[in-house]
Amino acid sequence: MIDTGLGITFDESSHEFIYPSSVFGPSQTEQRYLKDILQSLADHKATGPEIVYSIAMDVGLERDRADLLKRELLFGVVAYAKGTIGEEPVKSQGHIHSISKACQMSTPEVYEIWTGEAIIYMQERATDAPGRCYAVQAKAGEVVIVPPGWAHCTINASRSEKMIFGAWCVRDFGFEYEDVRAHNGLAYYPKFDAQGTIVWDQNPSYRSDKLVEKSPREYTEFMIESDLPIYQQYQQDKNKFDFVVRPDLCKEKWENYLP
To answer: Which UniProt keyword terms apply here (predicted)?
Structure first.
């Protein structure tokens, strides 16, 4: 695991995050079960880990709590199980971020992979024509930003290793599932081939041209540093992630956005 500056660890036996005394977090980790995500998979009867992923929303250093509340900014940590769900990797439900009261629009999310390897899949819309579709493969220490309004999901790219990530999001976060569920998931389904490599099957519910697979890029427009964990970047510059809460103040950066 990268040195995040928070010292949070994950107990695989209890599926709970453990916090140092200087760090706050929820007293009980929220769990997502296999039954919660089956509708977004290619195979609705697939079997896999009962607990697919574990979520701790609103964590941080105690000395930062008041500032995070004032900014309407929230940091979360999520741990994904290893293994498979049928032929598919362990993944989240696809969703779109709800309209936030802080800015009256959907909000972005800033992912940082802590351990393992992830694929952040995203598409512009969850309508029949999903627009541009990307699968961004990120390793520990790498950052991926999902823009406002895009449908997306998070995938553990490994069958043999758990995956943990931290993320900045708005405090009044919420998820819209209706359009994604109406299409039986997102526009592409990941699955493992015989060699353990992730390949993609197109969801026939969508009219999609192609899927772009890529590595994370440098987010210079948001002044994101590549060599410093994102919580520590917030500590150095408390204003840095205000764009997560107020994406309306930088709309030009979301036009023709490239993940």
So the answer is: Gluconeogenesis, Glycolysis
